[in-house]
Amino acid sequence: MQPKLNRLLRALAREGLEVTYDGRLYSVRLQADANAPPAEVLLPPDLPVEGKAFQQLAHLAALKHPSGGEVLRVRATPDFHPGDSGVAIGSVLHTRGLVVPGAVGTDINCGMRLHVADLSVDDFLARRDAFVERMKGHYFFGTRDVAMSSRASTALLRDGIPGWLLETLDAPLGCARDADLKQLDAEVERIHLGGVLRGNPDWAPEALTREGVVRDAGLATIGGGNHFVEVQRVEAVEDRARAWAWGVREGQLAFMIHSGSRDVGKHVGVAWRDRTRKAWPHGAPFPDSGILPLADETLVSQYLEAEATAANYAFLNRLLLAELLRQTLRELFGDVEAPLVYDVPHNLTLPYEGGWLARKGACPAAAEQPVIIPGSMGATSFLMVGCGDARALESASHGAGRARSRFSLSRAGADQSEAALGLKGVDCISLREERRVEEAPAAYKPIRPVVDSQVEAGIVREVARLSPLLTFKA
């Protein structure tokens, strides 16, 4: 390992990075900026290192604004890898006097939602085909009936899930008419932040606030990339007392949802990318990284309100994705309970120790909080509990992390056999064959070292493991 590590460190030094490694944590900084805080990366020695991701982290740590503010700390989770917008996926950024829209990006409040169901795996698999056909209709062919009043839509964007529920209880529309709204209300406490941030409908696309019935094509949709809906089996329980308290039992059916704010997040993210650029002080040079922070208090407040608006939409998107699945289980199997275990966001900017903490592809891991770390559709997923580790900025990974790009998997000449892609035995439901290839298990790092490194570092503890049965990919 040592000769290989030395070669790596020399290569990174030639790229302008000052890098050290103690066998567990990398410390990364731009050689040209000794005053910038080093970015820390938790990474086991057997996982691959990507120089581009290190460059992105170092530039993030070196961010400055002519008007002041500072980057206090940058941390990356062990699933980190380069991001398309210049910010590495898995980055956690602690600032004071600065907010960085690019450190969240356009997939605002991308996150995970986990349910368990009082239904045996054997019974479910006996009606697998009927279930899949119904869900393909909902997720792919638009047979879902997702509607709400303009009052409910406005309340959602302003007040999150509680606001939507308050308006929907009086006049449920679409699939909400068949939902157990009292159950949804009781489950709000199992949504991170109670499913609400202080938003403002003015930041949302106009179609969401028009008078009359709102039928938004993006709601209850999975989205592309690494987003999914997966039906799973609770394979093993490690912390029985905690699992019992959370309603999780070995052998149960479970379903996990990974999605975000869809076009609303893109609408907000693109608008604020442009606004942040226009707000940059005239005559001041742009950072080499192209990542621009906001320092003006009014602009910071407006951006956070806009981000919160998209985040509220994302909470409802995941709720409705889950509700369509839960209603389908009830249609096929009768009165299935299928309670929520937890819903947790990845991409958000939140208050933290007198400043702001922005996560991009990283999961909050406060003490005693449920943490959901999915594997690929051919690997185990993990239900964890956070330890509130301050050095990790109370953050854990949001998956295993990509090991290969989508292009490398789909390019001409690449081995696309089921065995090479790790798809043997994987039940993936998608209308696009390229999605199965791009998101194949071979695209991802092994999940176990990623999880074990965080357990050893005192960031999370294992509660339960879940194995995939079938996965929907849009």
From TrEMBL:
<keyword id="KW-0342">GTP-binding</keyword>
<keyword id="KW-0547">Nucleotide-binding</keyword>
<keyword id="KW-0692">RNA repair</keyword>
<protein>
    <recommendedName>
        <fullName>tRNA-splicing ligase RtcB</fullName>
        <ecNumber>6.5.1.-</ecNumber>
    </recommendedName>
</protein>
<dbReference type="InterPro" id="IPR001233">
    <property type="entry name" value="RtcB"/>
</dbReference>
<keyword id="KW-0479">Metal-binding</keyword>
<keyword id="KW-0436">Ligase</keyword>
<comment type="similarity">
    <text>Belongs to the RtcB family.</text>
</comment>
<dbReference type="Pfam" id="PF01139">
    <property type="entry name" value="RtcB"/>
</dbReference>
<dbReference type="InterPro" id="IPR036025">
    <property type="entry name" value="RtcB-like_sf"/>
</dbReference>
<keyword id="KW-0464">Manganese</keyword>
<comment type="subunit">
    <text>Monomer.</text>
</comment>
